[in-house]
# Entry
Amino acid sequence: MVCCRKLSGEVFFIIWAAVTLCIILFGSGSAQDITVNNNLEFGPVFPGVPKSISKYSAGEAAEFFITGTPNAEITIDFTLPTYMYSSGSTMAIQYSTTDCAMDSSATPNQSSPGNDNLNPRQTLTYRLGSTGLTIWLGATVVPGLMQKPGNYSATITLTVAYTGN
Amino acid sequence: MFRKNVIFSCVAICLLMAGVSSSVAQESAMIRAVATVLPSMTIIGSNNLDFDYVLPDVRKSVDKTAIGHAGEWIITGNPRAEITLKFDLPDSLRSVRGSSAMKIGFTIADASYDDGFGAGQTAPAGVLNPYTISTRNLGWDGSMIVWLGGTVFPTRTQAGGTYVGEIILTATYTGN
# Structure
């Protein structure tokens, strides 16, 4: 009985030490979290008339907000669709090499972002700010002259990962 | 032995936490790109510009308000959409039986349109200059009618016969 009580004390101490160590080793860095603030909204589109949404256009450009370990370096990758779909019909969607922008300041400025004219087709590397990182994306749809009327949509995926730096 | 098992378990817990930590080192989020495509535009030539009989050396005009004689197009598209209108005008008509030509001309007030805000061909909503590209809006019902008049100038020795020419009206959405 005495032996068991002694062992329980040791076990408790070892577990406490292990958990504390784990918290110190792995709990200090926050995981990232991505919040979608805005979809990429083209609104009404006329057949035969390409329509562009600027990354500066509040309420229309796509907007993501990333939080995580302050000042940690991350990579940012977009998965960009080539077409938008509507019940069997497709409509081309294009991205220029300057259609992305981001701002890591505490007060992100969409009309004058801290890091502008980025290529969304390439992996982007940047550091989170003290409060996070806001990313904007614009694009252009190219409807055909006889584009079938309707609501078109497509999915854009943003993936972020710590580099460890 | 028991102590070894406890230590092993603690190490396993640490590794598990490390695994959990690394598994959230990458994060993805999705958004939707959304757009609403509006109806296409159609344009139909509903009446030819018809000068009927023409006498040699007597010029003849057809007014844009002349029902059944003025050229007429009916345009349909998205209500109140802004469009541009561009005429391709011939400078002469050609005889269908030979190589004879007859001059045709247009004035800067020879075209008109009604987008529902006028009273039809005789009192249209406005005048168009057929030599320039005009920007207008379709009506609330998405339609517009365009009319065109013109003048032919037969010569004193104009060969008899039927003369034709092609007049094209191109309507294009501006995107506004």
In short: Chain B touches chain A at residues 2-3, 6-7, 10-11, 13-14, 17-18, 20-21, 24-41, 78, 81, 172-175 (CB under 8 Å).
